[in-house]
Specification:
Order of helices and strands of chain A: HEEEHEEEHHHEHEHEEH
Strand content of chain B: under 5%
Structural class of chain A: alpha/beta
Radius of gyration of chain A: 18 Å
CATH superfamily of the largest domain in chain A: P-loop containing nucleotide triphosphate hydrolases
Order of helices and strands of chain B: HHHHHHHHHH
CATH class of the largest domain in chain B: Mainly Alpha
Largest sheet of chain A: 6 strands, mixed
Number of helices of chain B: 10
CATH architecture of the largest domain in chain B: Orthogonal Bundle
Shape of chain A: globular
Largest interface: A-B, 25 and 23 residues
Structural class of chain B: mainly alpha
Distance between the termini of chain B: 30 Å
CATH architecture of the largest domain in chain A: 3-Layer(aba) Sandwich
Largest sheet of chain B: none
Helix content of chain A: 25-40%
Number of domains of chain A: 2
Shape of chain B: globular
CATH topology of the largest domain in chain A: Rossmann fold
Strand content of chain A: 25-35%
CATH class of the largest domain in chain A: Alpha Beta
Distance between the termini of chain A: 40 Å
Number of domains of chain B: 2
CATH superfamily of the largest domain in chain B: MetI-like
Oligomer: heterodimer
Number of helices of chain A: 8
Amino acid sequence: MNQAVRTDILTVRGVSKIFGADRGSVAALSDVNFSVRRQQFVTIVGPSGCGKSTLMQILGGLASASCGEVLLNGEKIAAPRPDHIAAVFQEPWLLPWKSAQENVEFPLSLKGVAVAERRARAAAQLELVGLAHAATRLPHELSGGMRQRVAIARALVQEPDLLLMDEPFAALDEQTRTKMGNELLRIWEHSRRTIVFITHGLTEAIYLADVILVMAARPGRIVERIEVPLPRPRSIDMIGSEVFGQLRNRIWQLIGDSP
Amino acid sequence: MTRSGLQRVFVLGAQLLVVAVLLGLWQAAAPLGWVDPDTLPPFSAVLDTLWQMLHDRSFLQDIEITGVEVLVAFIVMVPTGLLIGFVIGENRPLYRTLRGPLDLLMAMPKALFLPLFIFVFGIGFAEKVLFSLTLGIFVVILAGIAAVHSIPQGLINAARSMGATKAQIYTRIYLPGMIPLLLNSVRVGLIFTIFGVLVAEMYVSTHGLGRMIFDAGEAYHLRDMLAGVLLIAVISIALSEMLRRFERLIRTRRASFS
C-alpha cells in the first residue's frame, strides 16, 4: 500500500448533536468518532432513529454538530463542500423538468462550467452508470432504479473526493437494490472514490463495505467498527458464505443488544 | 388517428354542440314567445347591435379605458402578489403569523370596500386599478405561497450539497418549479381583475364598459347591454383559455413535482 492510500480523508471527532434545549432535549448523536481512509468503502449501519441521517447531514455540511468537528483532508467542514463532497440521498431529487443529461449537468452548470465541457463530462458519467441511451428522457419517464442512477451520475460528475450516500437504494425493490449494489461496486472500482454509505440493511452493509461502522440508538452512537474480511470483487454467492453469516449475526447482536 | 385523439375530437364536438344549443335557445326564445323580445332580444339582434357599436367611437373609447385599467392592474398585481407570496412562503414564522389574517382577508367580500377606495383615491383610474388589484391579489399571494411550499425540502438540500447559492436556488429551482402552479393563479387573478374594474365602473364612473352596460340597463336598452356583456364574456373566455393553453403547454413540456 502506498502513502496516499493510507491517509485519512475524513476524520470525525467527538461529534454530538442535540435537538431542543435543556429539558426535553434529545441527543441524536453522542460522541461519534471515526475516520475514513482514502478510497475506502465504509458503510454505516444501524436501526432507524440511531441518527444515521443526522450524521450524514453533518458530514455533508448541511447541518452543524452541537459539538465536535468533522475534518476533510484536515480541514474543518462547516458548509457544503461541492468541490470535495457529493451526496446521494434516499430520493434521487432530480429536477423534474430537466432531462437525465441536464440533471447530471446541473451541478456543473451551478459552478459555471462551460457548456461543451459539462455536456461531455455528464455524458461520460451517464455512460458509466449505463444510461447513455436514456440521456434525453425526463425523470418521470425513468424507473426508480434509473432515476437513482442519474442521481449517482450527478454526484460523480462533481468528481468528489468523498461520496456520501444516505440509504440510496432504500426506496427500491429488493431485486433492483441488489443489482444497484453491484453496479455501485463496479463504479467504485472504476473511479476509486471514497464512499461513506448509510443503510439499515445488514446484507447491503456487509456486501459493499471494507469497513462497517455499527450504530445504536438513544443516544445515536457508534458501537463497533468491523473490517470486512471478504475479498474483492464481491459476488452474490458470498452472501451465503459462513463468514458473511457470522458477520451478520454479530452486527445483529450489536444492534439488538443496545438498550 | 389515435384513440385519445378521437376522444378529443368527440369531446370538442360535444362542447360545441352545448354552446350551439344554448345560443339556439337564446335565439328562439323571443320569436317563439317564451320571453318578451324587449327583455331578451334574440342572439342575432344582439350580435347585430354589437357589430354596430364596434363602429361607434365612444364605445371603442369605453373598451380602451376598461382594457387599460385591467391591463395595468394585472401587470402590477401579478409580480407584486407573487413577490409577497414568495416572501411569506419562504419564511416559516412569517407564514405562521400571516396565514390566519390572509385566510380572513380572502374570505371577506372585498367589494364592500369600494366606497373606501373612492373616498381615498377619488373616482378615476387609480381607484379602479387599485380596487381591482386588491380583489385579485390575494389569490396570487396564496398561489405564490402554495408554489413555494410545493418545492420539496429534500431537493433544496440536494441543491445545497451541490453548492447552489441562495440566489441559484431561487432562480434555478423555485422559479421553474413553481411555473405551472403560478400560471393557474395568474389566470384566476386576471378574472378577478376584470371583475373588479367592471364593478368599480358600474358603481361610479363616467366611462368604461361597466358604466356603459350599467347605463344601458338603467335605460332598458337591453340590446346594448347584452352586446356589452357578450363582448366582455368573449374577451374573458378568450384570455382565460389562452392562459390555460399556455399553462398546459408548459405542464407537458416540464413535468412538475407530484
